[in-house]
Amino acid sequence: MTAADVTNTPAREQAAPEPARRRKQPLADRESFLAKAFLLPSILYIVVLVGVPFFLAIGFSFSDVTSGDPSFDWVGLRNYRRIFDDPVFWRSLSNTIVFTLVSMVLIVLLSKVLANILAADFRGKWVVRFCILLPWTTPVSLSTISWLWLLDNVFSPIDWVLRQIGYLGPGENMYWLGKPGLAMASVIAVHVWRLVPLAAVIVLAGLVSIPKDIDDAARVDGAGFWRRMFGITVPLTLPVIAVAGLFGAILTFTVMAVVYVLTRGGPTNSTQVLASWAYFVGIQGGDVAQGAAVALFLFPLLLAAAIAILRAVRRAETL
Amino acid sequence: MPDVVEVRELRKRFDGGGRGGPVYAIDGVDLATEPGEYLVLLGPSGCGKTTLLRTIAGLEEPTSGEVLIGGHVVNGLPPRARKIAMVFQSYALYPHKTVLKNITFPLKAAGMSADKQQERVEWATGLLSIEHLLSRRPRQLSGGERQRVALARALVREPRVFLLDEPLSNLDAKLRATARDELKRFQDRVGTTTIYVTHDQAEAMGLGDRIAVMEAGKIRQLGHPVAIYDDPADTFVATFIGSPPMNLVRRDGQLVGFRPEHLLPIENVTGADRVTMPFHIDRVEYLSGDRHVYGTITGLGEDARVIARLPSTVSTPISPDERHEFAVPAQRLRFFDAESGQRSDPVPVGATAGPPS
Prior knowledge:
Chain A has 319 residues and is mainly α. In chain A, 74% of the residues lie in helices and 0% in strands. Chain A contains 15 helices and no strands. In chain B, β7, α6 and β8 form a beta-alpha-beta unit. In chain B, α3 runs parallel beside α5 and α4 crosses α5. The interface between A and B is medium-sized, with 18 and 26 residues.
């Protein structure tokens, strides 16, 4: 028997003959009740808004449900076979991958730079911080619509600037959203613009968690800015950057609003991604079964990303 | 010859961050080390000693004044240009690097060749006997091992000056005593000028060639440990140094000070030149062979609560609620101005003391 046991026993014996006291204990102090009460909302939320739709989607993907004919008939793998035969699916898949990879590289680089600016101490820093965080606080549909105007085929202010500096001739336009390559670049740019502030704040949290002494020690040890950056700061924030990157990847993978508002997947599916295509097929086209099958392709990729996040977090804890 | 560090009229102001006015963490400090000296900055927390060290390192820029290393003004130079090494209180080892990589980091930054690096690492790790730890990471080391690695990292590129910021405060008491001894022997061997910051007077007394006692951003006294202890420049130093601290008794606009170990039962104070005083004893503590006697003395000046420290060689029976004649040798009395706390000239006090019993 350990010392703790010895001291605990009398306390338990004292409590036992007084069941009246336990009954009087208010509801808000009973842990067995509190645990259930606190967990219930999130469990309900997950079951109703994530679990049910997920299994519904799996069910639908093996059926012929459409918005016109909601009766469930089993069709086996027909929806998947059709998807594989559709060139738009392959286009969307490669677009999704390109979109995610390019966005993530840009987001990680820019958020690292922005986090350094956010962490720095200078005159008027609150104005800069406010401006940096602004894109994330603006509702996505609102900000994307202003981008839609900025990238307008005829009236784009960016084109006007380019004309003023002589890059474009009079009456010429870039057609930002009209040419396949430029459209993809525009979608990526808007998405990066939206996600960078969030990523920067996450990276900033990693930056400030590095003890000041370590940076001071590196300075005394003779390391210049770049050596400190790549020898000390980046390795120490790597787990946090990994988490930020993976969260960003998930948000990018499932992005739909930016594409929907800016290009609706066009021109000729050159900016179509899996999430937007699933929406167009399943909701707008009414082929719910096929849309569900498309959307399910996101699942294995997202699962892999989620596992990677958990691993990165665990590595951060053991450092 | 080892380089010397000098600071002239150094001031460092911190703006109060909205609350209160600006604070001078360093308030006009003049200080110069001897070549190869072990100089200890001693003071209570918040006295500016760490800020002074960081300013010398170049991690803080002074508001005014000059820092000189090896005779050159280094104001505005980044830490790496100052060729100093610093050991931090937290050791600040790079957690993601192995011990070997930690130690070679400053060498890599200096662009040293791999052969030379190897040679330096072998020398430094040999000196601190940590060769067996090279492949470990900091979190796999004990406190004492971390401290040695931090020292090795500081030592490895032969800095002009060592700056140590409370390097022993994270060790347990037993390890601290050994580490203190090692630090001193190690510095004797390397011979580099060292500035050592601590709030622990035992460390300061044991390690320092000289001690600078700081308070509120100012140096109160700079001197040899013996001088600091025996001849404190003011009442702050007198009461900060020594455990228990110096007794102070108010008398005619002056404070009369004497160390607890000099206040002894009268039969133990020989010689005619002694000042006797009746001592009303409240309480006796028995601490590692000594008896600490708490009580009130009368007759010297105003009544004052004092502490006497009786070594084990004094066998006079002492018990609480007793009155006993105690005495202090007259040459052990120190005099301070009651207003400013500064040392003042001795005045004869024997006349007002009670007659010897």
